[in-house]
Amino acid sequence: MSRRLLLFIVFLVPTTLPTRLLAAPNVVVTLAPIHSLASRLMEGIGEPSLLLPPNSSPHTYSLRPSDMRKLHDADLVVRVSPELERFLERPLQEIDPTHRLDLITTPGLPLLQYRSGGRWEKHSHGTEVLGEESEAHDHDHDHEENEQDTGHTESEGMVDAHIWQDPQVASQLAAAIATRLGQLDPDNNDRYAANLHTLQHDLAQLDEELTRQLTDVRHVPYLVFHDAFHYLERRYGLNARGSVVIDLDRRPGAKRLAELRGVLREGGARCLFGEPGANRSLVEMLLEGTGIGYAELDPVGSTQQVGPGLYFAMQRGNAAALNRCLKP
User: Fold this and answer.
1) What are phi and psi of 235, to 5 degrees?
2) CB of 191 within 8 A of CB of 20?
């Protein structure tokens, strides 16, 4: 090989290899579990950017200047819903609506409603509501409850946006993202479709795996820290009986804490599931003297490595925590 030809190849390679990555759409995804799905769909084409650090909550996040630059440079912003990521309400007003995707609007999703804090029981129509009717009506007369969390919130009765907790729903979300990616980047549409096929196959296997793992604990009652796992409970027939808080930045009132301690003392729950970063002193106060087990469920994969494997690691970790705490 001549020296001139060798030099030509050396200079040619650095300029040609990155062109596929440079041509990929600039995709920004708000939450780590959804980012994980998008990463799988874009494998071999490019990498999406994650807006929220994995240890951040969409309920309390505040945008940084670097986040604003990401949003303005994006070809596509993928979020779950306007209600969940409220911090994006004003920034997205400056962005072309065709450059964003609200996953909550995906056709055919089996949507659920947010529930009250406190104890949940089955309504005669099968809808889960706050168990103590008196609390629903008496909170206007309870000054202490008015100053704190009464168990009711403006989001109660609205669509629950934690839709990614069900792997079957996650498969629908992946299809919606792949469709939009193919529209943005038609040259790579076949690759997105192939990646979607593989991802949906893996999600179906994950669903079968979780079904097997959770079968033995389906009817065991437990409490969660906040109502973030409704879709997981419905998919696998789990028996969550209530939540400690409804808003992560509001402490529950004394009346509802007493009710929850009653549930724990009376054997109405075998385990209390907290979350990474949850108010541990509040959890310890509820558990004191009850002998009830404690474990953590992670709604956004905050303890997992960001990337294409996060969604699967998060779901397997949560299933393992449920098994550990709920099995006799």
Assistant:
1) -60, -40
2) no
Residue-wise pLDDT tens digits, 69-99: 999 999 999 999 999 999 998 888 888 888 9
Express each pLDDT in 222-274 by its tens digit: 999 989 999 999 999 999 998 888 777 677 888 888 888 888 888 789 999 99
Instruction: State the pLDDT at residue 162.
Output: 96
48: which DSSP letter?
P
Collect all residues with Cβ–Cβ distance below 8 Å to 109 and sequence separation of at least 6: 163, 169, 172
CATH 3.40.50.1980: does it fit domain 14-109+164-207? Answer: yes
Neighbours of 131 (CB within 10 A): 18
Half-sphere exposure of 102 (CA within 13 A, CB side): 14
Name the DSSP letter for residue 307: S
DSSP per position, 208-268: HHHHHHHGGGTT-EEEEEES--HHHHHHHT-EEEEEEESSTTSPBPHHHHHHHHHHHHTTS
DSSP H helices in 77-142 = 133-138
Global pTM?
Answer: 0.82
Identify the CATH number of the domain defined by range 134-151+216-326.
3.40.50.1980
- Taking alpha carbons only, the member of 168, 161, 241 closest to residue 206 is 168
User: Three-state DSSP class for 49?
Assistant: strand
Please, where in the chain does CATH 3.40.50.1980 lie? 14-109+164-207, 134-151+216-326
